[in-house]
Specification:
Number of helices: 14
Low-confidence stretches: none
Strand order of the largest sheet: 6-5-4-7-8-11-10
Number of domains: 2
CATH architecture of the largest domain: 3-Layer(aba) Sandwich
Structural class: alpha/beta
Radius of gyration: 21 Å
Largest sheet: 7 strands, mixed
Number of strands: 17
CATH superfamily of the largest domain: Vaccinia Virus protein VP39
Helix content: 25-40%
Bound molecules: S-adenosylmethionine
Shape: globular
CATH class of the largest domain: Alpha Beta
Strand content: 15-25%
Length: 405
């Protein structure tokens, strides 16, 4: 039986997605033969309520010098991180020479805002290709994995931090006790830790199972995050729901007793209890909802193809890897996936081997239907794709329910 990565309690997985490839591992046809697969299963710890993957591939298999996710491909995310950085600078950087650290700083999407304001900063980004883009933008970056050991080195070389930031990365790190111990040492006494990740409450409410893939080892709630940091003499002092990545939660954390705890923490915990995030039945129902979504999507796509209509996937994301593999959607249903990221174009989707083509190809011969894998950017995408819709094109979406728009 697997043991909880946070509290070591035995738990049982509530769903298995079967054998899955590396979600961001877009590949060439010569790599098909040696493609790596692992068993994607998720469980809920009955003791500390952390929802987590049973198995995760080695970190070097996911984060390396050919990492396919570049944060700055989304304009909306650029605005989001500009606002995030501004809120940190306005509220928490009043010391003489403030120092800001970010984990998983990627291509510098957040830290570029501190760099341009002349604020001392350091990005920690193990994937060398995206780190290089940040460095070229003038963002100070080291290519390492953050853990307690690295925190010691940073303190020695740079001193302690006023703010430690992270977005969409804490949920990637299985050794969170080492990370939290590192934060405890690295944070100034009145400093602040602010991080955000996809929120478990949204996944349960929207059945957004495509958030589940190799990189996301944890699916956080305020309850599970509070429990983790309490063990390191740190506490959640505020939380704020974010309308990005299909619903995320921002956690604001400080040394225990240093800052007043906002009422929003308690309010959110009450909401989590009402949603039943602590109850095994919630996850049994989630599993049923996921299975039913798969059946409906597969039936709809098969039906469209039977009518002789074309379907193209829109946005080759890690989310699309979960959906295509779990639902067995291959090139016989989806002609190709359109994506604007050059590193993915000319390659194939992990596991199901659907060709990935440029947006130019999509535009040159619109299909009747586009399967919207980037549903979390639906507003931005639909604003940009008016021409497709005017040509009679329709969207197939599957979150929160399978339907045609
Ligand atoms: N923060 C960016 C954003 O929200 O767009 C990037 C998020 S991306 C999904 C996750 C990033 O975390 C990757 O660039 C990956 O290389 C990095 N990462 C993974 N493990 C890490 C670790 N232990 N320490 C620091 N960064 C890590």
């Amino acid at each position: 039986m697997p043991k909880c990565l946070i509290c070591k309690t035995d738990y049982l997985p509530f769903i298995s997605f079967g054998e899955m490839p590396i979600a961001n591992g877009f590949l060439t046809s010569t790599q098909f033969e040696n493609e790596y697969f692992f068993s994607l299963q998720v469980g809920h710890c009955p003791n500390c309520h952390m929802v987590q993957l049973v198995e995760q591939p080695d970190r070097e298999m996911m984060f390396h010098d050919d990492y396919a996710f570049f944060s700055s491909t989304s304009k909306r995310q650029e605005i989001h991180f500009k606002e995030f950085a501004k809120s940190v600078a306005d509220k928490y950087l009043s010391s003489d020479d403030p120092f800001v650290i970010e984990l998983g700083s990627n291509d510098g999407i957040m830290l570029q805002n501190f760099a341009s304001a002349g604020i001392r900063h350091l990005g920690i980004e193990p994937s060398k290709n995206v780190a290089k883009v940040a460095i070229e933008k003038g963002v100070n970056t080291i290519s390492e994995f953050f853990d307690e050991k690295l925190a010691d080195i940073i303190i020695e070389e740079n001193g302690k931090a006023d703010a430690i930031l992270a977005a969409n990365v804490m949920c990637h790190i299985p050794y969170l006790h080492s990370v939290a111990a590192g934060f405890k040492k690295l944070l100034k006494p009145d400093g602040i830790i602010i991080y955000e990740d996809p929120y478990l409450g949204d996944i349960v409410e929207k059945t957004s199972y495509d958030q589940i893939y190799d990189e996301h080892v944890f699916y956080f709630s305020v309850a599970s995050v509070s429990n983790l940091f309490e063990q390191h003499d740190l506490e959640v002092v505020d939380v704020a729901h974010q309308d990005v990545h299909g619903g995320s939660m921002r956690y604001i954390i400080a040394h225990k007793g240093e800052k007043e705890i906002s009422e929003s923490v308690n309010i959110q915990r009450i909401k989590e209890n009402e949603l039943g995030l602590h109850l095994p039945d919630t996850y049994k129902n989630l599993a049923k909802g996921i299975e039913s979504s798969r059946t409906q999507l597969l039936e709809l796509l098969t039906d469209i193809r039977k009518q002789g209509k074309r379907i193209v996937g829109y946005a080759a994301t890690s989310k699309s890897t979960t959906v295509t593999n779990y639902c067995s959607i291959g090139p016989e249903l989806i002609e190709f996936i359109s994506d604007t990221t050059p590193i993915k174009q000319g390659k194939y989707s992990p596991g199901t081997h659907i060709p990935v083509k440029s947006h130019k190809v999509f535009k040159s011969n619109y299909p009747e239907y586009a399967l919207l894998f980037g549903w979390n950017h639906a507003k931005e995408i639909m604003e940009n794709e008016k021409e497709f819709m005017e040509s009679g094109g329709k969207w197939v979406v599957y979150v929160p329910e399978v339907k045609i728009i």
